[in-house]
């Protein structure tokens, strides 16, 4: 086995080593069944145990209250972009969105297919470098949608807005389970697994019963309706078994590491280390996000020239620090430091960036 | 590692041992990248190489002609049940379906959501024990849909009907890549991976350019439109990376074993062994499917009593022959013997069934 690198990709992203080792062990013989975890029937008690444990761990770690259902679905968060308005739309009531960047934009585009969309606030005026916290709520909206973390801009809602009586829908794909959330504000929260939870191929939807009731009252294609997946325990059809299984192993690891309070402290520390380095670099490194909106998950920054950025990415790679190039739509650099990125990885990156500055400033 | 069992589950199902071993090797360090195959970015050249190889292998092994696109999508074949009529529907033209059992029924249900459905033939009159090959085509239909293999009844279209000028759409989820097909008859063929290709979590859609053009002319949600996935090489959003990767390994194995001509011979032999045993059991074992419609993938049969069926399933399990219980909706027994089930597995099952008959007849 080669040396394990530090993987700063924005997703698919680094996973807990312990979870990967456990998965490796089960890949030919799952729990003594004589079958791979990829071969067992989703209707077997062995796989049902995986589904149950994964669901229970999400509920426990996120402190999801009674009255919310936890679903494991295929198709990615991008599929939820159109399933959400279709399930939750109410005649005569617009969909309200806050526009914070590429992911919010993608969600807004799909909602327009199912009705009127009102964008209550946008940070487009400053190239999506901040979270627009001040906006006029629309009490008539079917729901209010926010993107809790934008991976491309590197901005994050560290606390959620008060939606009043309107159901708050949160795309938490890139900061899922990275800090405790206030469920009294949330009606639906969803996340593709491949950033902060597990491998690509499964999406978690946590949805309050009253919103499932909206879906139940409609005529929807079977696979679109949240009611189907609630009633069938996410097994109307064959679920993405291996992605769910590896997510379960990552959830176990998260629990062993002390759960969300511990993970939040760690994530603050990891992000703090990089932002302090940026702020104390005398302008050699420039943070992209406004300070009050800085993401703890995706640290975006620029160097004095694009040439230096390219050099920095290449030299980092040679040192085993992978995936630091910013998203192709915005350029620059980005360090994605999700739950599974170790403090050691972040310290190694910080050390490298200090040395790079000394050699190139 | 425990003894490897013979897995006769209907899906998720047995996979080639060689593919699993290779995946195990890559689970911590993919091709010397220092990352798991579950951790690498889908935008990396390493993953693009996986996607390209998997696609090229499907094209080569299935002899898919120019003018057809090969897509890798999430959500399962059940999601295609509604995406197909939505993409391919044409104003004023009904959807034509042949009704052959549970899977055809599920597909028909979703199509009704998008327009008029005409069921041109059905084998419901004989409990879906045969493929209704004689029917009056509807030349005005937007397409004609068949389910090439029904896992529950154990019946299969061993050759496809001539659809005339109407595009033929084939749900080949359970006999994908098990025998060569005549692409001159086919307009779209789709399959969930978890029966005959790879692990659960990815669906292959092979679609002819003129049907993509129908999708392109419509206003559809981004993730629904085949045009999106054609234009983005199945990477509009993060694809189910690990399921695609393991499917690629299984495709390599299929190629090494001689591809489809060889696999078809093997599948005929495997199924023939079991059907001959059934036919020569003096009625102790009774085949469920009509002889002219017998599936090579799912061999369904009954014993004289349900009690004996239960005993047979239990004794088989004790001998390492797993998953022989029939689908809960119909009872009886079922041996699913997809591509990856070895002749040795089928011979071991046949030997057991002979002994069981001797002891219990």
CATH hierarchy class name of the largest domain in chain A: Alpha Beta
Please, how many helices of chain A?
A: 10
Instruction: Specify the biggest β-sheet of chain A.
Output: 7 strands, mixed
Distance between the termini of chain A: 37 Å
Largest interface: A-B, 69 and 69 residues
- In angstroms, what is the radius of gyration of chain A? 21 Å
Order of strands, widest sheet of chain A: 2-10-9-8-5-3-4
* Estimated structural class of chain A: alpha/beta
Q: Characterize the overall form of chain A.
A: globular
| Average of the residue pLDDT scores of chain A | 97
Which superfamily, in CATH terms, is the homologous superfamily of the largest domain in chain A? Type I PLP-dependent aspartate aminotransferase-like (Major domain)
User: What letter string, H or E per element, gives the SSE order of chain A?
Assistant: EHHEHEHEEEEEEEHHHHEEHEEH
* Quaternary structure type: homodimer
List the uncertain runs of chain A. none
CATH arch. level architecture of the largest domain in chain A = 3-Layer(aba) Sandwich
Count up the domains of chain A. Answer: 2
Strand residues, percent of chain A: 15-25%
Q: What level of helicity do the residues of chain A show?
A: 25-40%
Features:
alpha/beta; homodimer; Aspartate Aminotransferase, domain 2; Aspartate Aminotransferase, domain 1; 7-stranded mixed β-sheet; 3-stranded antiparallel β-sheet; 361 residues; 10 helices
Q: Explain this structure to me?
A:
The structure is a homodimer of 361-residue chains. The first copy, chain A, has 361 residues and is an alpha/beta fold. Chain A folds into two domains: 17-256, Type I PLP-dependent aspartate aminotransferase-like (Major domain) (Aspartate Aminotransferase, domain 2, 3-Layer(aba) Sandwich), CATH 3.40.640.10; 258-360, Aspartate Aminotransferase, domain 1, CATH 3.90.1150. In chain A, 37% of the residues lie in helices and 16% in strands. Chain A is built from ten helices and 14 strands. Chain A has a seven-stranded mixed sheet, with helices on both faces. In chain A, helix 4 (102-111) links the parallel strand 3 and strand 4. In chain A, helix 3 crosses helix 4 (102-111) and helix 8 (259-279) runs parallel beside helix 10. The longest helix of chain A is centred in the C-terminal third of the chain and has 21 residues, at 259-279. Chain A is globular and about 65 Å long. The relative contact order of chain A is 0.16. At the A-B interface, helix 1, helix 3, helix 4 and helix 7 of A face helix 1, helix 3, helix 4 and helix 7 of B.
């Amino acid at each position: 086995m080669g040396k394990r690198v530090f993987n700063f990709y924005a997703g698919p992203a680094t996973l807990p080593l312990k979870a990967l080792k456990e998965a490796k062990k089960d890949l030919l013989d799952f729990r003594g069944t004589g079958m791979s975890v990829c071969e067992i029937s989703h209707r077997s008690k062995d796989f049902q145990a995986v589904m149950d444990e994964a669901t229970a761990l999400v509920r426990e770690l996120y402190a999801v209250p009674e009255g919310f259902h936890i679903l494991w679905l295929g198709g990615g968060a991008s599929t939820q972009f159109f399933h959400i308005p279709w399930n939750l739309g109410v005649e005569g009531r617009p969909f309200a969105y806050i526009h914070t960047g590429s992911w919010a934009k993608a969600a807004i585009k799909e909602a327009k297919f199912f009705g009127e969309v009102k964008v209550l606030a946008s940070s487009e005026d400053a190239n999506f470098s901040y979270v627009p916290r001040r906006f006029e709520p629309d009490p008539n909206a079917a729901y209010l949608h926010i993107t809790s973390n934008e991976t491309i801009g590197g901005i994050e809602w560290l606390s959620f807005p008060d939606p009043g009586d309107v159901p708050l829908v949160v795309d938490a794909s890139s900061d899922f389970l990275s800090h405790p959330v206030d469920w009294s504000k949330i009606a639906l929260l969803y996340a593709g697994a491949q950033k902060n939870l597990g491998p690509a191929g499964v999406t978690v939807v946590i949805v309050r019963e009253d919103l499932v009731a909206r879906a139940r009252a409609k005529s929807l294609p079977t696979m679109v309706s949240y009611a189907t997946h609630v009633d069938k325990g996410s097994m109307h059809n064959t679920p993405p078994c291996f992605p769910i299984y590896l997510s379960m192993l990552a959830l176990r690891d998260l629990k062993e590491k002390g759960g969300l309070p511990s993970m939040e402290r760690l994530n603050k520390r990891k992000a703090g280390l990089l932002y302090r380095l940026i702020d104390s670099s005398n302008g050699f490194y420039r943070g992209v996000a406004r300070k009050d909106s800085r993401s703890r998950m995706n640290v975006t920054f620029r160097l004095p020239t694009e040439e230096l950025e390219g050099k920095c990415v290449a030299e980092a790679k040679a040192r085993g620090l992978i995936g630091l190039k910013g998203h192709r739509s915005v350029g620059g650099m980005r360090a994605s430091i999700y739950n599974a990125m170790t403090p050691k990885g972040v310290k190694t990156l910080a050390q490298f960036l200090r040395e790079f500055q000394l050699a190139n400033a």
